[in-house]
Write a structure and sequence with these properties.
rod-shaped; single chain; 0% strand; mainly alpha; 6 helices; 172 residues
């Protein structure tokens, strides 16, 4: 009986046969990727204690830039929200289509505005030159010349200044 009591009272080593938890295994893999022999000769329990200490102070920073999250984040969204990744992809596709439509409308509007400017410039030019010609033919050549010449000079300067501004915008 005394032998039986002795074996029952035998001190057991703490967690000697315990497996390393999954979160600690990840830390161990990270450390081994840097130095494969980092835990060489260290007993399993000591290794677990070290990994637990590291898990407490371990800070991980992730950053991402772009319209869509990275693949790991999409997978996490799927685990929390049913079809979360698919919904995010659809949202990005809808946003892209919306942006394309807006840009199309802006380009079309700018084109129409340019055409209207040219048409109104033509009308103003014809009216100014016509008035100047009429005045010159009616016996007021000086006033007619000033009106017709002023009209031509002003229209030419507007087009030249407009083209220069357009080139500057394209360079920027």
């Amino acid at each position: 009986m005394s032998k039986k009591k002795k074996s029952e009272n035998k001190p057991t080593t703490r967690r000697s046969n315990q497996e390393i938890p999954e979160e600690l295994q990840e830390i161990e893999e990270d450390l081994r990727s840097v130095n494969p022999e980092v835990f060489k000769g260290i007993p399993k329990q000591k290794k677990i204690d070290i990994l637990q200490s590291l898990s407490i102070v371990s800070i991980q920073h992730r950053s991402h830039s772009g319209p869509l999250p990275d693949a790991d984040t999409l997978i996490k969204y799927n685990s929390v929200i049913p079809d979360g990744a698919d919904r995010i992809m659809k949202m990005a596709e809808n946003q892209q289509n919306h942006r394309i439509n807006l840009e199309s409308k802006v380009v079309k509007s700018q084109s129409n505005q340019s055409k209207l400017g040219q048409i109104f410039g033509l009308i103003i030019g014809l009216v100014g030159i016509g008035c100047g010609t009429y005045l010159a033919a009616s016996g007021e050549p000086t006033v007619g010349g000033i009106i017709a010449g002023g009209t031509v000079v002003s229209l030419v300067s507007v087009f030249v200044i407009g083209k220069a501004a357009q080139r500057k915008n394209l360079e920027d």
